[in-house]
Amino acid sequence: MTEYEKMKEGQRFEGADPEINAGRANAFSRLNEINNANSHAVAQKKLTALLNHVGESSIINPPFYCEFGRQISIGNNSLINIGVTMLDGAPITIGDHVMIGPSVQLYTATHPIDFKARREWETYCLPIVIEDDVWIGGNAVINQGVTIGARSIVAANAVVNHDVPPDSMVGGTPAKLIKKLNT
What we know:
By secondary structure, the chain is α/β, with parallel strands linked by helices. 22% of the residues lie in helices and 27% in strands.
């Protein structure tokens, strides 16, 4: 199994592996073109080529940042606002009709608690899933392995470390249930 395959499967992997570095370099180059495009239409076309999937009528507003791009799938009619960062060592799946505010951060990667392992840059990644009709407020952080349930709201500046049930509003650091939503 390659280091890239280990990364995608949530196993510890060597982050400086040549294949992984090539993927990062490719994304870096493409993101530079996207974030400096002379029109929104050009940026959208290049983003569609970089990411695994961008659904119909979805909009991604540059600047946009990711680590690889090819693990990111965005459904239909979704909006990714300016300054969003997605560290996509594992899949990031975003549903339909999702609104993600400015400067939101999605992190699939984490590191061991053991400092000796961190010295070796050990990393492992778990997927993030954002289901349909979710609204994530600006500057929120969604951490590895989290699923945000359908129709939920994540308040601005929240740090989400655990799954959010459908039809819920969460906020705070760490994010806690504020209330159940009536749909």
